[in-house]
Amino acid sequence: MNSKHQFVQLSDGHFIPGLGFGTYKPQEVPNSKTTEATKIAIEAGFRHIDCAYVYQVEEEVGQAVRSKIADGTVKRQDIFYTSKLWCTFHRPELVQSSLERSLKKLHFDYVDLYLIHYPFSMKPGEELFPKDENGKTIYDHVDLCAVWEAMEKCKDAGLAKSIGVSNFNRRQLEMILNKPGLKYKPVCNQVECHIYHNQRKLLDFCKSKNIVLVAYSALGTQREKPWVDQSSPVLLDDPILGALAKKHKRSPALIALRYQLQRGVVVLAQSFKENEIKENIQTVQLDRIRLDKTQRFGFQHR
Ligand SMILES: NC(=O)c1ccc[n+]([C@@H]2O[C@H](COP(=O)([O-])OP(=O)(O)OC[C@H]3O[C@@H](n4cnc5c(N)ncnc54)[C@H](OP(=O)(O)O)[C@@H]3O)[C@@H](O)[C@H]2O)c1
């Protein structure tokens, strides 16, 4: 990690900013909130934006970035933009056109990083979550190595500067790494990672292969009812996090984000609130925080 700019070098030579702005939103939140929040994030200093085709906000994110380019705040090359290949586009002949679809929505010529969003495939078509008449998901059988070869072609075509994966376990990563004729390694694996699930083993494996781990839901997710048991503990209310925050005169959110950065993990943070966005950018502006006294959840610096 470059300590001055908090960039992490990827195995293909490109650099990824250590802190990224998350753009996933629940369906009931209006898309205009994404445009507004992304502009605030860029003004606050975020230069890494994490998005995906399936979030259905690439038009809004593109609009926000272009407006910040137009007013002189940033240039396109200052922004590190990630998109992700959705599971219904895994068939190799659909991969590049899916990326082109995202680029068209964004009005960009390239993405900085393109990820296989999940290591499973669903029936191709316009529906994002194809279901049969009984409401069951219709999966598709596509060899992940063939998907990866199509991702490599996107990089060769200059449409993605770097390529990686998301939600892959060690076995799935090994499958790609051991693929005969592998041209490019995945530069990163974006996974759920926070103080209650710190992915220590996967992180060790990724580090050993020079794959950057990117942490999502580092602040405990947006706690959407369909995905999160509402009686589960609220991460940012964790007493150890609270005690550390008090000790270092920082907020629990900053400690939770800084924890990831200090263990060599690139971290994403989502928010629609200006005060939170402005607070979260401090993650890359602080001096090192001593986090090595805490034992719980393996939540010690390493
Ligand atoms: N690859 C994948 O499969 C995958 C999956 C999930 C997410 N992601 C990516 O990761 C991003 C982040 O994950 P996430 O959306 O689950 O959310 P998150 O970053 O864990 O946290 C979101 C919530 O934390 C609260 N928060 C943020 N900053 C705060 C602060 N300074 N103080 C107090 N509370 C704060 C906000 O809630 P309030 O607004 O209510 O305060 C926000 O909704 C996503 O947006 C997406 O880009 C990727």
Automatic annotation (TrEMBL):
Substrate binds at residue 117. The active site is at residue 55. The keyword Transport does not apply. Residues 19-286 form the NADP-dependent oxidoreductase domain. The record marks 84 as: Lowers pKa of active site Tyr. It holds the Pfam family Aldo_ket_red. Keywords: NADP, Oxidoreductase. GO terms for molecular function: oxidoreductase activity. Belongs to the aldo/keto reductase family. This is NADP-dependent oxidoreductase domain-containing protein. It comes from Marmota monax.
